[in-house]
Amino acid sequence: MTLYGVGLGPGEADLVTVRGQRVLEAADVVYSPGRLSRSVATEHVPEERIGDIDFPMTRDEEKLRRAWKAAAAEIAPQAREGTAAFVTLGDPNVYSTFGHLRRTLGAFHPDVEVDVVPGVSAVTAFATALGVEIASGASLALREGARGAAPTGPDRLLLFKVTDVPATHEKLTAAGYDMVYGRRLFMEQGETRVTDDPDELADRDYYTLAYAEKRGLDDEPVTASFEMADTEVETETEAGEASDTEVNAQADGGSRLLGDRSDVSDAVAMERAEGIAWGDEIPEVSPR
Ligand SMILES: C[S@@+](CC[C@H](N)C(=O)[O-])C[C@H]1O[C@@H](n2cnc3c(N)ncnc32)[C@H](O)[C@@H]1O
Hints:
The chain contains ten helices and nine strands.
């Protein structure tokens, strides 16, 4: 009685979550909206269990609605009789076709239960692949950069669908941003590329994203200063102080650092103390 929306992650077969893999292995039929997601799904499911649905390559809204209605009509009986899964690259709830299916099922087959297994999204995978850190306290906005678009404003932007890298690059550079581009990150299908040179990615590939950061941002995390520090002596002193703080924080459940707060549980006190010890922001704890 259930349709599972399963996030496959960015494309490498071993970045499917354990839960996603279990659902795929148990499903009677697995539907995939495209060739790439199908090639990842078939790493976990035999071809015979892959279901058939057709999606027209069109922006015509009426044709798209008809196609989703037909897809829902095919999938609903399978989900009623057993377990069906619909896979998407990344996460099913982030810029994904799965939302169309969920809404169409809700409208025409409301008895079908829908459950979602989250996946590793390009929204987070990009940071590792591009060697970028979105530090605690920083903001990051998600936008689309299709056909040379270059939205601006926020300090840090992640742009999806960057199909004309040189055009987007020119506009963002003029608007005061530095960029790094990623193509086919953590994908087995096609060559993975990470570069800040737009000419290297002049050919169109839908699986391209851009990370843009305003030039001259001045919000470095506390530990960034170590990278500039004059090595050994300072490192030893700093390390000694840090571990003393840490030991004390753990030994007294944080009360030395927090003051005697009887309204804060030991666990919360410990979390807050760790936050202090590691330089993170201290969350507000509401009195109980
Ligand atoms: C329609 S969105 C799908 C996002 C997906 N649901 C997710 O959570 O990652 C497609 C866009 O995401 C980005 N993208 C997704 N996977 C990617 C990957 N492995 N490498 C680079 N970009 C990727 C590209 O910009 C692409 O145009």
